Amino acid sequence: MDTQKRKIAVALGNADKSALEAVYKTLLDHQVLDQIQVTFFPGGIEGLEKTLEEASSGFDAMIAMPLEGVDIPKIWREKWTALKDTLQVSTCGGLHYITLISENTNDIQFLPDIEKNVMHIEKFSEALKSMFLLTLPRLAVMSTSKNTDGKASKEDKEILIPAVQKAFEKMIPVFGTFSSEVFFASDSFLRFNGFCFVNREQADTMINRYEGINILFEAEAPIVLATPITKLTDKEEIFRETLYKVNDVLRSQKEFAEMSKNPLKFELKRENNEFQAF
Prior knowledge:
The chain is an alpha/beta fold. It contains 8 helices and 12 strands. The strands form 2 sheets. The chain has a 10-stranded mixed beta sheet, with helices on both faces. The chain has a two-stranded antiparallel ribbon with strand order 11-12. A hairpin with a 2-residue loop joins strand 11 and strand 12. The protein is globular, with a radius of gyration of 19 Å. The mean pLDDT is 84.
């Protein structure tokens, strides 16, 4: 049984400390998430920077509550320059996604080359395994085209489709490209565990199907870094859901590390676009 408490630092953003402390106390009183220890830090930009300084040693995770007008992932990356080429994994409801450009641009002229996209797909697959214990996550790559006629765009033909094919050859169950407008208009997306979008606009197509909280993780940070992205105003609910998700990720990472110490040898085979381990 896991008896070691997981230490989580919380930057308050513009939330009220007493309100979040009340949420945490309620969870403790009901023995929910009793294996975590939360430390609250001041709000505002100074509080965020102080939390980063403290969290970099002695904490397992950091939650940065929303702070209006502040690009929290950018500050993370300024703190740890090694994060510049790492992956941001977002989760919304039970679905996970990345963007192949960035979180902040919709311009496909910045679409990375084939090899960079293959690397993103590989990292995304590995992140879903370690952070969410998905054994063989199925990934879908969205098209750069907004057309619904099924025709691939120039960028799809020259960059995305070759990247999908190369990743597929590496035994990653990845498929595409798909028109996001058509793909999310039906239940087809439920057959997949993760989605690769080319911009935020596409991601919003999926997010708008849910009333839940979208949580952004920095996948390869030295500690678990998470910040909620939501239009909801109930900060207590935002904090509670983010705390649950961060705790799940910490637990999954621990289990994944233990399972990976002496893994059973297996091979993958591919038949009719389906993957099986044996």
